[in-house]
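Reviewer 2 asked us to include a model.

Predict the structure of this chain.
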Amino acid sequence: MSEKDDTNADIAAMSFEQALAELEKIVESLEQGNVALEASIGFYERGEQLRNHCQKLLGAAEARVDKIRLDAEGRPVGTEPLDPQ
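Predicted model (structure tokens):
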């Protein structure tokens, strides 16, 4: 297994919160500007992988969110997709 495969497996196992926390640390490090060029490139690549993972998890969560349907009197009567396609 290559290092890239290990990295992808590592990220795939992360929760949204874990991935976001690491992404925030990477952004902070890059914003400080005191990271060597090679390290910056590595940070950027990992940050992109983390961002993609977060987007995937958010998309899955959004797909599960339902909107509560109300009857004429305002009582809940069921659910429907939040954003029907």
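Residues 3-81 form one domain. The two ends are 40 Å apart (CA to CA). We have added this to the supplementary material.
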